Amino acid sequence: MEKFIARQPVFDAQRGVYGYELLFRSGTGNFFPNVHVDLACASTADNLFLFGIERLTRGRRAFVNCSREFLVRDYAALLPRDRVVIEVLENTEVDADVLAACRRMKKAGYMIALDDFVEAAHWGQLVDLADCIKVDFLGAPAESQFEFCREYGRRNIRMLAEKVETYADFDRAREYGYTLFQGYFFSRPEILTRHDVPAYKLNYLRVLQAANRHELDQGEIVELIKTEASLSYRLLRYLNSPAFFLVAEVRSIPHALMLLGERGIRRWVSLVAIACMGDDKPQELLLLPLMRARLCELLAPLAGLESAASDLFLLGLLSAIDAVLDMRMEDVLKEITIRSEIREALLGGQNELRGVYDVALHYERAAWREFEETAARIGLRTELVSDLYVRSMEWASAVLSGEEIADTAPV
Length: 411
Fold this sequence. Notes:
It contains 20 helices and eight strands. It is an alpha/beta fold.
């Protein structure tokens, strides 16, 4: 049976990652309305053990959706109490059995969250057990968003604003008093009106440009990297970390480029340039394009595009550069020269590269229907994607932290 899993980060007010909501589907059928929600939730514990909670959250809390049956049958008790947050779904019928189950969970030391909270009688007794209340910032009126936080935040309940899609929403939620945040605001540009690259990031962009010229000039790249200490340090740190199985310690930038070869230079110099540009951004914003880059690369042979794997890696890597630089994608792409197919895909044009990227994007966002349709269109077998997604997460985390990469596929 196909097992699909995705995750969405939950941030604190400093845009550090507090935890991840884990989104499971046992086959694409679960997104159709005639399938009962209990069937989706019933496999949650099994999936957590199958994939491994440490692999999925790396020590942070896992927010897990729990239906009525999942609660009353005590399936939640199979999950590690110090690692999960039990999310009671908004459509759960709150009766004596559900209340008793939640009390057992609370007494056993589990954290309980109320999902898509609205003011309703059936939530009343559950509020007294809640450690966290999630409020939909797309669906709930602004007045309710404020009132909920004022009313329940003072009870020592963590207030979580979900579906926060812009930095304006994030700022408003913080102003209201919310302490946790979920949504794609962190991967969107904060400012869309600026047309020039910030001066201190120009060197990074110049290196990115040089690494992706049609004719690679290693001498130019060496000189550009030498002028920016942070680039030199980060590149040498990456290459001397356990993540790389290089035959010799890297002592200098020319030595590093000689060991990398042309493909490696394009790949790793691009990665380091983007990482340095994003030093003032939440780490999750750097993790996201790394995951996309690796997933797109791994999907390439499955879509019959093995020869385009490097282009797909760069496409994923550049997919969040507008948020890194707080510029419109169109304006960023005026500053760098990349292959026309990559440029077209980044701007939303449909081509072979964009098809693979869309599969990765839909999967990442747990848009299961769109994922299935896009995968079918490009002839990609969906049952292989979950493992590649988890491998991409592990690879991206290892690269950023300098840990050893267990994935043995070529890097």
